[in-house]
Amino acid sequence: MDLFEDGNGDDQPGNNTPEFSVSEISGAVKKSIESEFGFVRVRGEVGRVSRPRSGHLYLDLKDDRAVLAGIIWKGRAVALAQQPEEGMEVVATGKLTTFPGQSKYQIIIEDIAPAGAGALMAMLEKRKAQLASEGLFAPERKKPLPFLPEIIGVVTSPSGAVIRDILHRLQDRFPRKVLVWPVAVQGAKSAPEVAAAINGFNQLTPGGALPRPDLLIVARGGGSIEDLWGFNEEVVARAAAASEIPLISAVGHETDTTLIDFVSDKRAPTPTAAAELAVPVRMDLLAWVEQQQERLTRALAGGVETRKQRVRDLGRALPRPLDLTQNARQRLDGLDERLPLALRAAAGKKAIQLANAGLRPGVLMRGLADNRRRLNDLSRRLHPDLAQRVCTQSQDRLGTLLRRLSDRAGRQQAERAARLDSLDRLRETLGYRETLKRGYAVVRGDGAVVTGTKAARAATAIEIEFADGKLALGGKAKTGKPKPDEQGNLF
Q: pTM for the full model?
């Protein structure tokens, strides 16, 4: 029996209106709404969005005249391809029901999707403006790519053609070690897995068992905006911006643009282009090295030749070594001639100074006698005791001075005697007698030194002086052959 037809009436006479409890009314309304509408598709703008710790998602769907409360249970919320955001125009599919606890009706949403590409683009522009206001797109935040990375980390699907294109291109250009982090590149799991892969690569230890990459490539093939939406999620964009490893984004084709392209350090139009940006061409590098080596060789050879020519030019401007030493040699010869005379003059001067020295013993004795006479005169004039003391003190001082003078005179006399001996030895060394000891002889003719055969023939008497004595040869030197019984001429 229907509640609105056969309810219990009022016992008061004249009143036929049925009476119901609150729960009965709420149950009837719930049954009526659920049976009348069932599953529906509702188009509207997302209003308030709430995500409590339970994991359920509460939101409002509204238009310009009404608001409809909506619930997405936890199991369905995590599986949504696009999470609803405030201001987003969506189409929600679900079942209308009521919530008796608050006397309101609501929709239990099973699926929710943006209402066309226009809604997705509007939401994308909103996210883009928010991230740009935080400075995540600033050029100064971009990190330079390494010239030749040792290890390259690739975040992509392991089963698609993208990874094969990247590996093939790297093998052609410059083979490098590649670490692949497999992720879903489409669907609800795409965004969290891509963000986790970027963060995971950054947490690796450089040089560890699994080394940290020097460069990251996030790649995916082309597709619709819905297929690429995972790379427009805020969690992916923030993970790419926070990456300490330089990152290249290669999502979609050249005309496709996602949020990760704006925050990455470099955008590649295709995954193949990302591999080309990652490494240089090995053969080009080898050719460049050879060119630099040739340039270096030519530069070194040219520099050496230029310096050789410079040395030759400077050599022509320099005087001959003989010219440089000629004046010095002449001065040396002049000094050599003056040296014996200078030594003899110095020795004579020192001898005169020594003879006139004021500290000779005779002079000292005369000074001592004068002092004694003066002392005797003073002693006669002084008191005997005082005179005795003064005399004693004077004698002590006089004895001290006498000893000092004697010592000093003896040292000076010894020093001057030693210097005189040295000068005498030098004189003898420079004299001709020392030369005679080395096997030479002096020839004199008529008392004069003979230096040639002509003077010897003209001399009436010849005398030869050796180191140990002289040998006289009488008679004038004669020319011609000697007689058999006649001694021949020495010359």
A: 0.46
